[in-house]
Amino acid sequence: MRKILGLFVPLLIIEVVIFLEVASAISSLNTVILVMFTTALALLILRDVSGKIINGVKESLTQRVNPAPQITSGFFRLIAGLLLFLPGFMSDFIGLLLWLISFNPDILAPLKFASGFGSPKQNRQSDNTTDPEGNGQVIEGEFRNLKDD
Fold this sequence. Notes:
The chain is mainly α. It has helices at 2-26, 28-62, 68-85, 89-102, 127-130.
């Protein structure tokens, strides 16, 4: 608990300092309007996220496509919405960055952050499934119809 508190206290202090600097630079009223705008954007993102994740995963599974990109995109949008909901410019900046990443999770591919979360086009068929007989992956066996017995 102390480690978590030790992590959040400096972040809150930085948020307050940035907030006060922006308020002194663009006036208090404009700062409040900007914070209200990002909160409204957060509500729109969070409202949109809930059903789209589930529908995207269902659609991916019915098409036999890897659902990981939809899950990753939905996760980034959820975290972005939560960060935008918090008042503060540093959290808003990180939230907007995650929201933009949610439209194309392949941006993080060079960082190896989302390993295995390639695009659905890449994961549609692997090399092993295109020619199972040529790769020695055919399972031979016998069967009998139990309805005839």
